[in-house]
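re: ur question from yesterday

yeah so i grabbed the chain u mentioned. its 464 aa long if i counted rite. heres the sequnce exactly as i have it in my notes:
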Amino acid sequence: MSSLTELPLTAIAARIADGSVSSEAVTAGCLDRIERLDAGINAFQAVSAERALEQARAADTLRKTGRPLPLLHGVPLAHKDMFYRQGEESTCGSIIRRGWTAPATADVLRRLDGAGAVTLGRLNMSEFAVGPIGLNAHYGPTRNPHNQDHVSGGSSSGPAAAVASAMCFGALGSDTGASIRIPAACCGIVGLKTSLGRISTAGTMPLSSTLDVVGPLARTVADAALLTAILAAPADPELETDAHAELLHALDGDLLEIRFGVPKGFLAESLHPDVERCLDNAIAVSKALGLAPQPVETSAFGDAFAIYRNIFGAEASAFHRHYLDIRPEDYSPQVRARLLAGRDVSTETYIRAMRERSALQQRVICDVFSTVDVLIAPVLAIPVPAIAEVDVGDGPQMMEVVSGFLRLTSGVNVLGLPALSIPVGLTGNGLPAAIQLIGPPWSEALLLRLGHAFEQALATAPRP
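ran it thru and got these structure tokens back, copy pasting raw so excuse formatting
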């Protein structure tokens, strides 16, 4: 059954739809894999085995009627434990939310339900999505499927690890500063940080309301494209917008018109030699694809990174004000320290940061995306570290470690840009390295098309 569970989402969806395999058999295969592997990986917060099998049997019954089937008919997925389902628990990776039940179902879950997906369960995450590493003091770290001594990346740790280890075919994550791209990069899969506002966050745990976005984690770019098209579909299913049609056909078209940018300055500085080598290899691939890389100044990303902490800190601490006052001991030391640091951001500092942000958003369009359509950059500046290296609690190294993880990604959130993380090879420790393709707002279809071409060109690259 492992050969079935390791197929891409698009392939298994086609096989379920044509009846060559049943949704029940595929779902049972995923559940078997969870039972065998998850004790070591710790990707799942809760598994809904009986409900998943009931949904799968219902999908198989519907297929036999001959009626038209939705795009994800009978495909098993699982999601980060911060996407609410009415009447069900959502811990958000915390003990504060243990036993809390959601008053409404998240828009994105309703869209996946409507597309026919089977839900396997809820996935582990960093506590309240605060943390890019993948640690959780309450429920344990999610471990990298390729080497369990190493981190999976956060905060969408469970989704990335579950998809990479073929326990599900795709997953939902959120990205406030890195939380889709870094886990995808660490686990060697595809993750799409969407444009701010592209996908509804209604019914999703907020963290930093002007930075939060929702996006997919998947094993291939085609899988991510399909999930994104479903998640960003018009609220009225009878409506078809140009933007939605573009996502449905995102992989079509040639690359010859794409202006391809290579960073100089901030996004290219202080890279580990292994990461620099992987970036150089990816740039060489771009040339083989017929693109003409041109250098681009990326200081706007550095300036955006510099104000990220003030925006994130002020908004996250405001959301947590009540529980910080009445249950501070129920936060882990690192999360509590980061949230309390946000209280020190004055109103004046926050307003100034938001004004600077607006100016930077205009500047990145003028300085970068007036001359190129896509910018390439690493996701992490270092190879995927061991858990023991970065599990520093709330000690003096905390902000240094966190900032090191966020340095190349959080500016993208401040600027409101989409970014696609794709694996491009291995670093010296045998774990994945990844690039992110960054575009102007609402350019997801372009990033997916280019990412698909990179993926095909890198098909023979080493895998963990």
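noticed a couple things. The chain has one domain: 2-457. also Residues 261 and 339 are 36 Å apart (CA to CA).
anyway ttyl
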